[in-house]
Amino acid sequence: MTQRSPGGPGPDQTPAPTPSAAFAGFAEEGVDTRRAGRLWWDQNAADYVAEHGSFLGADDFCWCPEGLRESEARLLGDVAGRRVLEIGAGAAQCSRWLVAQGARSVATDVSGGMLAQSLVLDAHLGTTTPVVQADARALPFADDSFDVAFTAFGAIPFVADADQVHREAARVLRPGGRWVFSVTHPVRWAFPDDPTTRGLTAIRPYFDRRPYVETDDAGIVTYAEHHRTLGDHVGELVAAGFRLERLLEPTWPPGHDRVWGGWGPVRGAVLPGTAIFVCTL
Ligand SMILES: C[S@@+](CC[C@H](N)C(=O)[O-])C[C@H]1O[C@@H](n2cnc3c(N)ncnc32)[C@H](O)[C@@H]1O
């Protein structure tokens, strides 16, 4: 969850970018962001879980900063006995919850540092959550090997080629399988990543696809987030062979005061913060 969201700074660099970044801002389209994701998440894994772990829950399935839980939303359907793949799983809280529901769930993530946090949670809870380190764009699984695949803010915002994530999800799902993913609502890209009223004035073209990046002293991109319009997301899904069944835009619940990056009750009352795509193959 980002726009320097659940994990980073924002398009207007408010809140502040990673302190060590030499540059933070919008790069030209086509800038090489391939090395960014894994490195940043490895280095920030423990801090990320320390900051957001209590909200996410060690063995709970949270779709977004609005706090929508799978126990309530049931977007994956009945998971008992189903083969479920989590992509960009982080500390695998969602998969841990799914295993407890009887799913045959596997959590994958490109960052060994994030998956190590899953082992920490397992050790603490006495649970066993299967994890595999893998880039979402090259999954180490056979064709047709899952009934359901999903990600809650994993992988897709952080890669230039999200179409390849969708193609891999389509490849490993059986025909009729379900693919569900949450991302920052695309409309947010036009606004400052600021949870106060400052974040309610559009300052950038929604159609500007340049990625937000941070670079180190050598000019290497250490963190990247990529914007896609709603139409871009749908186009990539359809090209990968999916049918879009539902598009959820969770509302901000009354009494929910937690601020996460640019998300919070002030903007939540006015703007959508999350988009959840529910698709079938
Ligand atoms: C915001 S976290 C989402 C995880 C979890 N749902 C959460 O809310 O904490 C983003 C995750 O995506 C992972 N990620 C980034 N790029 C990836 C890629 N190319 N393949 C797989 N995972 C990736 C990161 O390592 C990180 O664990």
What report would you give on this structure?
The protein has a single domain, classed as Rossmann fold, CATH 3.40.50. Strand 7 (212-215) and strand 8 (221-225) form a beta hairpin. Helix 1 (36-56) packs parallel to helix 4. The strands form two sheets. It has a seven-stranded mixed β-sheet, sandwiched between helices. The two termini are 25 Å apart. It is an alpha/beta fold and 281 residues long. The protein has seven helices and ten strands. Bound molecules: S-adenosylmethionine.
User: How many discrete structural domains?
Assistant: 1
* SSE topology string: EHHEHEHEEHEEEHEHE
Q: Which percent bin holds the helix content?
A: 25-40%
Bound molecules: S-adenosylmethionine
Distance between the termini: 25 Å
The CATH topology is Rossmann fold
Instruction: Give the full name of the CATH homologous superfamily.
Output: Vaccinia Virus protein VP39
The radius of gyration is: 17 Å
Per the principal axes of the C-alpha atoms, what is the gross shape?
globular
Spans where pLDDT lies below 50 across 5 or more residues? 5-15
Supply the number of helical segments.
Answer: 7
Number of strands: 10
Q: State the secondary-structure class.
A: alpha/beta
Quickly give the CATH architecture: 3-Layer(aba) Sandwich
Largest sheet: 7 strands, mixed
Strand line-up in the sheet with most strands: 4-3-2-5-6-10-9
CATH class: Alpha Beta
